[in-house]
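[audit] Reproducing an earlier prediction to check determinism. Same input, same settings, fresh worker. If the tokens differ from the archived copy the diff job will pick it up downstream; this log only records the rerun itself.
[audit] input (123 residues):
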Amino acid sequence: MQEQISKHIAGHSKWKQRLKSAIDTGQSEWDVAGVRPDNVCEFGKWLHSMSPAMKANEHYKEVLQFHAEFHSIAASVLELALAGKKAEAEKALEFGGTFATASVKLTQAMMNWKRSLGDTKAA
């Protein structure tokens, strides 16, 4: 599990660059409808397929919540980028912006979950 969490921390960290590219070009290989759901990406599928016992874990619940928020905000930023609203989209990526904050919260929750599983390394 720790390995899976580390892998998905890295995968979600790529979204900032994907969104930045969409802001810069006004285009993306991703569409808003495909980004918004939290159960379509590899990590989301993995999360939603966990056993009931694992789903009762507080770390799981926190990660699930922050993962859903991350996808919702990423989709909103992508929507702004594709609509040519560069300034609004860029603001979301800046320190303290909605996307930046969601990304930090998700990453921290994933790292905390990983640590709770007995790994002394953060990621």
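[audit] rerun output stored. Observation attached for the diff report: Residues 58-82 form the longest helix (25 residues).
[audit] end
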